[in-house]
Amino acid sequence: MDQDLQGKIGRFTLPEIFQLIANSQKTGTLGIQKDDDIVMIYFKKGKIIYGYGPRKTYHLGELLREKEEITLDQLNDAVNTQAKTQSSKRLGQILIEKGYIQKRNLEQVVKNQVEELIYSLLSWESGSFKFYENQYPTEEEITVNISVENAILEGFRRIDELNHIKEALPDLKTILAIAPTSSERRTDFSLHSDEWNLLALVDSRRTIEEIAGVSKLPRIEALQKLGALKLAGLVTVADKKTPEKDNLTAMIERVTGLLEEYLADKSKNTSTERTTLQFLRNSTPVNPKETT
After folding, report:
1. Cα–Cα distance, 82 to 183 (Å, whole number)
2. 51 pairs with which residues across the strands?
3. How many whole angstroms from its chain centre is CA 157?
4. What is the residue-wise DSSP string for 41-90?
5. What confidence category does residue 114 fall into, taking pLDDT thresholds of 50, 70 and 90?
């Protein structure tokens, strides 16, 4: 990737652009424009660290007031302190030092704001984008750490329109496979139990239609979740059907690896995750012909 990563939304979807930046572990600013709306998403080594849109975000002080994290008097006091001392300290830092807010609460409010901004972008079907490599502001009150995979997955959990499903998925007769992992980048994501179960059905042999048919989820919901998994970079289009024995080995190694990597980062495991992991280790592929 270089400085000429730019174009029109439509030829590339925003999730695809996000994935390209994340997979390349790039640092810089992604500028996105649609009509009069301009949004800036800041990345550091492939992670989303901040986002700003004049029409979609508040100044930090206003945001904290709206969330009732601080009072108006506390905000005015912090602003006056910053002005009187001509301090180079950021407003968030002053609020923390005065004991008006805890750092973890401040980070959570900012993270929620950035996530909501990203979710809103996933429904954009037109506009333009440009990535400015190695350029991002250093004057933000606070930065966060958001994985592209989780942002895409959560965003698509909120989108129900059929047209977005069609955009995310190829022809329903296409065979899906578990996407290979990059040795240079650690995948960071959090799946719901039904998404884990759906992922277990992706075996490099079943078509999208067959996976939706085998799944216990309603067809539209299964297609929607498959679309989200594809845009998040967890599944991909298979080159060709693989022999059943080779496929079994590859599927178990890849999906079990994803699960173990995910569980290793958590302080506690849910019973659903344990059940799914055990299922993957003991399961055998189902012949697609048996599902028809």
Report:
1. 45
2. 41
3. 11
4. EEEETTEEEEEE-TTT---HHHHHHHTTSS-HHHHHHHHHHHHHTT--S-
5. confident
Distance, CA of 103 to chain centre:
24
CA-closest candidate to residue 51, choices 62, 42, 64:
42
**Distance from C-alpha of 270 to C-alpha of 255, rounded to nearest angstrom:** 17
CA distance linking residue 198 with residue 211, whole number of Å: 8
Place of tokens 């973890």: 104
| Residue spans of alpha helices (H) in the chain | 14-23, 60-66, 72-84, 91-97, 103-121, 148-157, 162-168, 193-200, 208-214, 219-231, 244-264, 271-282
Amino acid at 3: Q
- The residue ranges of every structural domain in the chain are 6-56+111-150, 68-109, 161-291
DSSP character at residue 4: T
> pLDDT digits over 162-205, tens only?
555 656 677 788 888 888 766 555 566 678 888 888 888 988 88
| DSSP assignment string, 102-114 | -HHHHHHHHHHHH
Local structure of residue 178 (DSSP, 8 states)? E
